[in-house]
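Crash report, auto-generated. Payload:
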Amino acid sequence: MNKILKKAFFSSNVVYFEVEAPLIAQARKAGHFVLVKVGTNGERIPLTIAASDTTKGSISLVVQRVGVSSAKLCALNEGDYITDLVGPLGKATHIEKYGTVLCAGGGVGVAPLLPIVEAMKKAGNKVITILAARSKELVILEEQMEANSDEVIIMTDDGTYGKKGIITAGIEEVLLRERVDMCVTVGPAVMMKYVALLTKQYNVPTMASLNTIMVDGTGMCGACRVTVGGKTKFVCVDGPEFDAHQVDFDEMQMRLGSYKEIEQKAMNQYLTSTTSN
Amino acid sequence: KERTVITRVHMHELAPDIRNKNNEEVNMGLTLDEALLEAKRCLDCPNPTCTSGCPVNIDIPSFIKNIERNAILEAAAVLKQTSALPAVCGRVCPQEKQCEASCIYTQKLGKAAVAIGYLERFAADYERKSGKASIPECAPLNGIKIAVVGSGPAGLSFAGDMAKRGYKVTVFEALHEIGGVLKYGIPEFRLPNDIIDAEIENIKQMGVEIITNCIVGKTITYDELKKQGYKGLFVGSGAGLPRFMNIPGENLIGVMSSNEYLTRINLMGASRNGDTPVLSGENVAIIGGGNTAMDAVRTAKRLGAKHAMIVYRRSEQEMPARIEEIKHAKEEGVEFLTLHNPIEYMGDEQGRVKTMRLQKMALGEPDASGRRSPVEIPGAIETITVDTVIVSIGVSPNPLVPSSIPGLTVSKWGTLVVSDDLQTSIPAIYAGGDIVRGGATVILAMGDGRKAAAAMDQYLMSNC
Ligand SMILES: Cc1cc2nc3c(=O)[nH]c(=O)nc-3n(C[C@H](O)[C@H](O)[C@H](O)COP(=O)(O)OP(=O)(O)OC[C@H]3O[C@@H](n4cnc5c(N)ncnc54)[C@H](O)[C@@H]3O)c2cc1C
Ligand SMILES: Cc1cc2nc3c(=O)[nH]c(=O)nc-3n(C[C@H](O)[C@H](O)[C@H](O)COP(=O)(O)OP(=O)(O)OC[C@H]3O[C@@H](n4cnc5c(N)ncnc54)[C@H](O)[C@@H]3O)c2cc1C
Ligand code: SF4
Ligand code: SF4
Ligand code: FES
Ligand SMILES: [Mg+2]
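Recovered output after restart:
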């Protein structure tokens, strides 16, 4: 049981939590994640640790409400308890002084990108951050990114904010403009696929943080497996970060859809049951 | 003489066509009268060979004779001297290969063995239902703190035995539930959760603290545990890493490890009241022939599969699963495709597995395991329809703990290397169960826990 110390809305569907977890706050590094379960019958879902405060003994999570389990978590309030929370999991991001680092995040990937941006900046890199969203109200964490980047570029599909266009357009503009030593990308599998194709053309080493479906998060089940460089890897223990130029994003995208129908049905049921109360 | 003419008791079972649609325990247990009569069959041998067949040397004639004179609680107390989880072992031990294989009935009389496992289960269940469960006596606290990694049978039995010796024991468990494979692997129709929970409660009553959601090596390191004053560590982290075959199509949707399938259902309550989804299909193939494969295939049947199939590359004779499990699976309508080995999976446009290609096999010469080895029949390949495939070809030790503690010697199979006393290359760290043996059995894991407790106690007493 972990107590929720603080809750804030970044947008109607994106919630920030500060949660009591002293041991994890001590042990965690950028790139680590936790598994969270709400209720006795809840599902275990992975969430990146966005920040931690060792004096308070707390970690921060940024959760996007997409289905039943994230909705149940987002419905909790300050003072409530998260039933189960375990971590820190995964390998920490490899942080070093590369020179100029381009961080590209979209959709659900923006929250997990924040701790990487912070750590890259701290290591002395020039950090250019590109945030992509469908439209203005879906842009999140802009302020926090600003505070830790030399430059933040916002891209929206519909042009309601920042520049109009998809993330690769923003990346290419930077690549044409200046030398980039490392690119980090987090977001939907298709997005990362196109980011990787583009940076490959420009010969920029690229790291992708993968968000596959997980159950235990400790290497016990294999639900999170992906193909990297022709070999099967478990994202929860071998990752979540891999050389983006080696990842089979099509397979990853396909596997993310494993439970689509069941998830949609469950969400519809959840929505009817919560609105009828 | 008259004892030997009694026929071995028969275990009552739920009817196959009822039980394959629910999650109720299949074996229903013995009645008191049946147990009393079965206990009579035991000859109280002066040199009980049965006991040497039991990996933890339970005093079998003593507990059975207590049953015979209707002192069931005393029988249970005898079991508890040696076994931390008698109700569990009475259910899942491969008795037919251990104690019962060594019973004089099997060895000399050519008759069915005394039903030691059934009687063990009976005594443990009787005690639990009586509400008069005896808590083993614990020595006064000696002020020494001990940490345990993992709450499977190895960790729990170690913890119980150290508590008896007066140590303050804390068990750290990575998952949100206590029990290891007993909870996430073995299904409730074979081992109900309330039975495990009752035995865990006994261990807690002895003063053992269990902390869930805590991964040693991640949440807390061995060095931090030492700083907190823990003088000894027992690693019972199991063999949780699933193996795959690395054949084309193995990452298609619907192909998964038995660990994933069983965890979703048993630990997470998928298909019952849990929020975790599970894929269920009409044509479910389980690859493998061990206990885990039988558990998975019988689970698939219960989830409504029309065809739940075992696909195994040798013949039924070589299957490592318990005979009872194979029998139960057959009664429940499971199909057996022996001498077949998958070589490729094919999927539909969405990536869901649709068919699998099987290589037909024949039996050749015995291999290193002593079983006849499977040999390919050239050109004999067939394709069958499947929508779910569960790969159950074994597990390897999880490298998490070994890799997080520098200085631990690990074998080429990833198991921890230990001395005869189960001491690792770091003197204050002992290990047992599947992390040392690879995938083995509950009773062997428990036995290791006991043995390690005795050895660590000696080590600490002479070194602290
Ligand atoms: C390492 C990692 C870090 C992540 N960090 C964050 C984060 O910081 N913030 C955030 O909002 N999200 C994060 N995610 C994604 C988050 O875990 C999923 O959005 C969440 O599990 C969806 O569950 P649901 O029941 O709400 O939605 P559902 O409707 O059940 O699922 C929506 C989609 O999410 C994916 N998904 C479903 N179940 C799981 C699961 N058990 N594990 C992973 N993905 C699943 C599937 O693609 C599914 O189609 C991360 C994922 C990973 C693997
Ligand atoms: C489906 C299935 C059916 C089986 N059927 C039978 C049967 O009928 N009869 C039989 O005798 N045997 C059976 N077995 C085998 C038996 O269950 C195992 O041999 C036994 O459970 C091993 O016990 P253990 O204590 O070594 O490990 P486990 O039971 O695997 O427990 C290890 C525990 O350690 C935890 N852990 C791991 N790493 C860490 C860490 N770093 N920090 C904290 N905790 C950690 C794990 O989460 C787990 O709970 C079966 C196995 C399976 C999978
Ligand atoms: S623990 Fe297992 S082997 Fe030992 S007596 Fe009991 S059933 Fe037989
Ligand atoms: S060998 Fe068989 S008959 Fe003899 S004591 Fe053991 S259980 Fe009883
Ligand atoms: S989530 Fe189970 S192995 Fe990665
Ligand atoms: Mg979900």
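Post-recovery validation: Residues A 214-217, 219-224, 234, 236 surround FE2/S2 (inorganic) cluster (ligand 5) (CB under 6 Å).
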